[in-house]
Amino acid sequence: MMKEYALKTAQGGFAAGKAFLIEAAEAHPEEKAAEKEVEKAAFEKAVSILEKELSQAEERAEKDAAELFEMERMLLKDASFYDTTIGLIRASDMSAAAAVQKAGDILGERLRGSSEYNSQRGEDLRGIAARLAGIIRGEKASAPERASVIVAKELSPARLSAIDPGLIRGIVTAKGAPTSHVSILAGNLGVPYVYGSDEALETIRKETKLILEDGKLTIEPDDEIFREAVQRMEAEQKAKEERIKRAQGAKRRTKVYANIKGPEDIDELLRSGADGVGLFRSEFLFLKGDGTPSEEEQFSAYRSVAEAMDGKETVIRTFDLGSDKKADWLEMPDEKNPALGCRGVRLCLREDELFKTQLRALLRAAVFGNIRIMIPMVTSVREIDAVRAKLGECAKELSAEHTAYEVPPVGVMVETPAAAMIADRLAKKADFFSIGTNDLIQYTLALDREAQELDEYYDPRHEAVLRLIGETAAAGHKEKIPTAICGELASDPAAIPALIRLGVDELSVSMPKVAQTKVHAAGAESMQEVVAEEAFPTGRGISVAAPADGELIPMAEIPDPAFSSGALGDCAGILPENGNIYAPCDGVVSAVAETKHAITFTADDGRRILLHIGIDTVYLAGRGFALRVKEGDAVSAGDPVMVVDLDLIREAGFSPIVITALG
Ligand code: PEP
Ligand code: MG
Is this model's pTM higher than 0.85 or not? Predict the structure, then answer.
C-alpha cells in the first residue's frame, strides 16, 4: 500500500526506482570470541582490507570525493579507534566484530555534541566500524544489478563507493546529515538523498518501489504513478543534459569561474568550461603532507594551474588554515571558538616564514599566467597593507636573487560583516572583491556553518546577507573593481537573479556546477537587461528580476493577444526551463489568484507587477502550482515564490510561458 513520509533533504532532486537494501552488519547471536590474539589478528586484517578498498576508491574517485576517502582512511587509522577496539578485545570476551562496533559507538558518542564537524566524523567512524565488522564476519559488499535507490540504516562513503555510480538513482538512510560525506558524494553524483526516518526504513523491502522528491519519500506508489515518475526522471535527466550543452553557447555577461583545490583538478577544470579559476583553495596543499609545502612545490602547483588556464584569470587564495582546517604539523593556539580565532589572514600574518614562502611562490608563478592573489577573512584595511608590505619584501628578495617574478593584482575576500561594511575603504586598496558567502552567512547570522540542528535558521538569502552583498558590489563598482561570489550561494539557482541584480560580476562555483550556473546567469541577465531595454516597449528603464530561468520571449511574440497587445500593460515572457518561479522585485505580494496561476506584487516604489504563469492555466484550477508565499508577504527580488509542475501544464495542453506585466 502506498505510503508517504516527510524526510530531511541532504541533496534535493527527483528520482524513482526500486530499493536496493544495504543491511547493517548485525551481531550474530552465536558469535563467540576465539583466542584474544586470533580476534586481534582478525581486526587488524579487516583494517588492512578496508584500507586497500578505500585507497582503490580514492584512486577511482573524482577529486572532491577522493579527499573524502583519504579522510576515511585517516579515521580508520586513528590511534584511539585502534586502542579502544584492542582494549575491548583484551578486557572482555567480545569478538573482534563486536568490539570494533562497540568502539565505533563509544567514540562516535564521545565526538557527538562537541561540534557539528566532530559529530559528523563520529558518524563516519560508526560507518567505518560497521564496515569492518562486516568484513570480519565475511559479508561481501553486494551491489545492485540495475539502477536503484540505495537504502540503508547507516551508510559510509566506503560502502557507497563500492557501487557503480551509474547504478545509483538516489539514496535513503535513517541516519544522516546534509554535510556528511555521503551527502557530498550524492551531490557529486547529482542524485537526491533523503534521510531521517527509522519508521520509513522499516517499511522498505528489497525491490520496493520508491519515489524521492525534496524531502518526500513515497513508498510503494501505484504502478501508474511509479511509471510516470520514472518517465519524469528520465525526461529531467535528458533536459539537464541538453541544458548543459546549451550553456556553453549562451550569451552572458557574468563570468562563471570554478573553485578548485589544486593541480589535480586541472582535467576536470578544463572539462567544466569555466571562464577561469575564481577560488584556488591553496590551504589544501598545506593539509596534504606533514609539513609546509616547499616554495618549489607551491610554485609548480600554482604555475601548472595558471598555465592550464592559458591566460584566463586564476585567483589563488593565500592559505586559509585554522578553524576547521587544521594542519597537524602546525602548532595552533588552543581556542574555544576557532571560527572566531586565528584563521585566514590572521594566521598568514602570524606565520611569517610560511606566508613569505607562499608569496614568493605566487610572485614567481605569476610570470607564467594570469594569477591573482586573494586574502581570506579580512576584517580591516590594516591587513591589506600588511599583506602588500610582505609582497613588497618578497619582491625585493627575488629581485636581489635575480629570480623572475611579477606582482599580481591583490583581492580581498569579503566574508565577514566587518569587511562588507567597510567595503568602500577596502575597495580603494584592493584590485577585486570576492564574497565568501559560506563564511559571510555564518558570521552575519551568527550560525555555525556546520550546524545541523539549527537548520531552520539557515537562510542563505537572508535580507542581511543580500544587503551586505549589494553594498559590497556597489562599493566595488564605485572604485571600478569587480565583485565575485565564491561561496555556495553562487550556484543557487534561486539566488542568481538577485545576485546579478545586486551587481555581482562573477560567480565562482564547484566544477560540476559550472554549466548549469552559466544557464541560470544567462537567463537572469537576459530578463533583467533585455526586459528593461527591449522587451517593455515603452522602455521605462525599469529593472525587473527574472521570475524564471529560461529563454526571453518579447511581448509581441507572447501567444496570447491579451498580453501581446499590451492590454494588460507592458509584458515580457520567459519560456521556463524548470518549475522555479521567483519574485520579480522587492516589495509585497499584493494578490494571489485563487487558482494560484497569477500573483501580483506591489514593488517598493509603488509599481504593480503581475506574474502570470502559463496561458489559459486558469482552467487547471490550481493543479500544478505550489505556492511558497501568501498575500501580504514581503519579498526580495529573486526569492522563490512558487514551484510549478511544468509537465502537468504541458500535458494539459497549455503553454507554461511565464509572463511579467507592468500594469
Ligand atoms: C566562503 O567562505 O564562502 C568560501 C568560499 O571559503 P571557504 O568555504 O573555503 O571558507
Ligand atoms: Mg571562507
Answer: no
